[in-house]
Structure formats: structure tokens, C-alpha cells
Amino acid sequence: MSAALALGDDALVLSHRLGEWAGHAPVLEEEVALANIALDLLGQARMLLSSVGDEDELAFLREERSFRNVQLVEQPNGDFAHTIARQLYFSVYQHLLYEQLAAGTGEFADLATKAVKEVAYHRDHAERWVLRLGDGTAESHERMQNGLDALWRFTGELFRPVEGLDVDGESLHGSWSSAVTSVVERATLRLPSGPQSSAWSAGAGRQGLHTEPFGRMLAEMQHLHRSHPGASW
Amino acid sequence: MTAVTAEEATQGAADGAAADAARAEAFDAAVAADDRIEPRDWMPDAYRASLVRQMAQHAHSEIIGMQPEANWISRAPSLRRKAILMAKVQDEAGHGLYLYSAAETLGTSREELLDKLHAGRQRYSSIFNYPTLTWADVGAIGWLVDGAAITNQVPLCRCSYGPYARAMVRICKEESFHQRQGYELLLALSRGTPAQHEMAQDAVNRWWWPSLMMFGPPDDASAHSAQSMAWKIKRHSNDELRRRFVDICVPQAEALGLTLPDPDIRWNEELGQHDYGAIDWTEFQEVLKGNGPCNEERLAQRRRAHEEGAWVRDAAAAYADRHAERPGTSGAAAEPVEATA
Known about the structure:
Chain A is mainly alpha-helical and about 230 residues long. Chain A is built from nine helices and no strands. Chain A has a single domain, classed as Ferritin, core subunit, four-helix bundle (Ferritin).
């Protein structure tokens, strides 16, 4: 499996989910912020996918089983706290990963050097919202906790080895856990305690095994492109 | 409260009237000299109210206008188009922010204006009560709706109220970018497959007339025009701007290889401008009254987003109170402030 596809699909799919917030955000500033994050991710996705093929063929003509993104990023938005929980888990992972890649000399060093600055902002955005929601009102506290709990079982996949990606998964997991724990505790929330992965031995997103909502997301995303074979836009 | 004798009151009122007259004179002179009126300057109440009405309507149009275009983000047919469309919808949210902020300089909060929008007591541009049925509609909105908006808005960069004029400079730059992107989207469709060409023509057919209506009622039926022109909030009449827009669109449609759905468009040698066919003002009035194809949906989605986001805003406010978080300070690291009585 190409590592570019794994990282590119993560960015592409999360960008799509964040794009679904347009016109629905709780406050105008978040319309701007969520779109900004979505645009950064889309830019990363385009660079990564273009490095291994035609970006549009890869985005619009692959079947679900060929996508290599982690299951975390394809999860539906839920309420704002759910989206922020997804942002926290993913942006802390992506920030730590890109820091490592940027420090190295591998094929992703250049991309990571550029992207790490964007991702630092995504992480800051997520962390601040976790603090506000966790330590805001009783309702926001409960919703934020629910979001963290619901998505916890998708976090284990982030640290599985990816072929072609020279990263120490175990140390990444360690750094991720302490960063997430620190934010969660400061937000007066509790770290979920259940398993971080499902028991399915066949694997997960990196093996092209996705969750049911992903097929519907792709159906919507790909429908227009597929309806006009060979057309340019 | 201090007791004021009748005599003092009369004298005070006379002084007040004299001062008011002097201030009104200074205001009129500033407007006549094309100087900018700034938030702390004295201004007639009706001028302030008229500006708030117009800026609120404009801000609301930006945020309601996000909906018909956001409708296509998830289905954009290429990643390049998706990036352009997301950036555009984001710009509109940004324009909403500038405009609500500009309105705040007149003492009206964003919250207050949003409440009025949600209660149906303030308007937004009727054009957004039409649906985006195909991908080509995204292009038609860019080319025609943003094109009409620019024609309307460029003169507002010289509007007499400083904060509004300055916001408009920035907005117009971005709008003209959107207009070019819409045109380029339609060009790609028009030169694409027969199905794509047909999609583009169909979108232009549906968006042309509503775009012409964006300039507002004909001059002889426009309720706010005359006073706004005198105050230099507005600088050209509705019909003047409409005709200017038609003049711009005719050669562009030709270059696009698309037909404007008006058999009466023709060059008027005498005027040096194009004539165009009769506009169906009944439809305009009906859509304005709430009977357009999407009036209900647009307002319902806006209300829903606001209501569903209430707990988020409450949480942010509670957190800010507790941690003395202010814009520009790091919320997480902010030092707790001592409680004061």
C-alpha cells in the first residue's frame, strides 16, 4: 500500500466531512475556521494524491474498498462536540506525525514541513474547543464527553504501521496519549477507558475496510463526476 | 436625577436645537464634500437607521447566500472545483463577519440583527430563495449573481459611511474573484460535452431574470432610493445599474457560447446601451413576500443552525467568564483574574 494514499485519503475524507458543516456551524467564526481547516486538508490531499496518480481519478473513481484512510476521519459529523472530538484525536496524531516526517529526510519531508504549520493550527483549534466545551456548561461537558467516548474505539488504528512510512508507531502512540490526556484533564473530562480498536482481525481503514456511513459519503461525493464519464470540469 | 426648572428646560432645548442644527449642517457639508462619516461623528437618526437596515440586509444575504452554494460542496466534480467552492463559501462567511462588525459601529449588535433575521423582520437578498439544481448553478451564481452584486457594490466603496465603505473595498475584491471563477466554470461546461453545455444553458436560463431583479424595483417604485442617493449611501439608480449589468453580460454570454433568455435584448444606438425585455415584477414581489421556491428552507436552516449552536455559544461564554478569555489571549493559558465585587 502506498503511504501517500493513506495520508492523502485521511486528508481528503476529513476535509469532505468538515465541508459538510458549511452553513450549519454554531457561530460565524466557526464557519470560517472549519472551512479553513477543510481547505488546508484538501490542499494536502491534492499534493499527496497527485504524487501517486491523477487526483480526480483517485478521489472520484475508486471504490470504497480501495480507500486507505483510517476509519476515524470518515465518521459522520454528529454534533459540534463530536466533530471536535474527531478533530482532537486526528489533529494531535497528524501534528505529531508530520513533525516526525518533517524532521526526517524521507519522501514526505517537504510536504510535512509545509503541512505541519497548518496542522499546528488545527490542533490548537481543537484543543481550545475541548477546553471550552469540557469546562463550559453542564450540557457542553456531557456532549464533549460523549464525543470523546464515541470515537475512542477508532483511535487505535492511528498507530498501526503503514508501509512506506518510517515512523515509530509505539512512540507516536505514547506522545499522542500524553497530549490528549493533558487536554482532556484540563477540560475537566475523563479519558475513555475502553478498547481503542475493534476486534475484527481483518483490519480497518488502512486495509480498505470502512464503516457503513463511508459508502454513502462516497456515493454523494462521486456521483456527479461518475455521471459524466470522461468529462472535464 | 436633578430637578430642572421650566425656564432652564426651555433654554436647554433652545441650546440643544441650535447645536443640533450646527451638527446637521456639519454632517450635510461632510456628505456634500464627499468626506467620510465615521462612527463617532454626529449623524441624523434616519441616516443611521437606513445604514443599519442596508448593512444588515447585506450581511444576512452573505450568510444566507452560503446555503445554495454549500449545497454543492459535497458533490463538486473535481478536487480543484471543490477547493474553489469551499473557499468561496468561506469568503461569504467572512463578508458576513465584516458587515456585522461594520453594523456594530452604529451600535447594533450581531446578536440583535440575527434575531431580527430569524424572526423574519429583516430581509436578505431574494436571489437566494432560488434553488441550486445542478452543478452549473454554482457557475451561474458566480457569473450572474456575483456579477450583479459587484455592479451594485462597487459604488458602495465610495459610500459616505466610512466603515461600510472600507468593508466594501475588501468584499468587492473577493467578489470579483468569485465572478471570474463562476465565468470560468461555465466556460468549461459550455465547451465540454453536450450534456455539460446543456446544463450550463439551463442554469443561465433560470438565473438570468432573478439576477436582473437583484437591482431592486424600477426607479419610480423604489422606496428608499431618493433619500439614500441624497445621503450618498447610494450613488446610482437601480435602473442605471441594471442597464450597466446587461451591457457587461451581453458580450460575456457571447464569449461563453451561451444565450441570454431574452429575445428583446438589442443594442440601442441612440443610448449607446442595450435594451432588454420586460421584467416580471409580480414574481419579484411574490418572492419578496415569501412565496419563492426556497424562502422557507433558507430561513429554517438558518434558524436551525443558530438554535442547534446555542449550547456551543453558551459554553464558550461560560468558559470565557470563568477563565477571563478574551479575543487575542490564549484561552487555555489565560491567568485567572481576581474576582471583583
